[in-house]
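A sample follows:
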Amino acid sequence: MRNAAETREKLLETATGLIWQSNYSSVGVNEICKQAGVTKGAFYHHFESKADLFIAASRHYWDRMKRDMDAIYSPSFTPLEQLENLIQLIIEKQINECSSKDMEVAGCPFFTSGGQAGIDEEKICQAAREMEDHMQRYSVALVRGLKADGALRGDPDVDQIARFLHHFVQGLLIYGRLMNSLDAVRADLREGIYRLLDLKDAYRSEGAEQPVSSAADAA
């Protein structure tokens, strides 16, 4: 028998997985409870609504994601190495998250659901905005570091380029999910990022993506 903490954890993990495979609107409380192996009473003991579960699940997901981000952006890496780590992590996460699913690209379930939500679904939009804010801070730090190292052409607006970078990646993942093709993501990911950053030729790499275990080990 699960204790309360284990039940809550199972609900969070199940909700994230189901939303990742489909979307927020199509996943109901009954299905979440069935897949998690808990009663509806147990569900409502922990969460007032599916929207409240969604917010909690997004924060739970970010706690894990933050460890990955801290690893690839470790100060032990140069800004250029951090950029390469990011490109590798994006691909690797799709492979890992889709390994047991009938899909090649998962994307971010919370960013995607936020984009699908209506303006009256404030809690869903809030969760997506929180995720956006978290990622934006890392993107700003990356672009600022590359600019300070002289890797970028001109005098770009750091905050604006960081937004461009994050939005491009999310849009490309949505496209890859639509096409159900990781190759479609690989084809444009590196070149798209380089163009948005306006990275100088001397700083560009043609290397294939490698596992980011070395980045994770540095955390």
About this structure: The domain at 4-203 is CATH 1.10.357.10 (Tetracycline Repressor; domain 2).
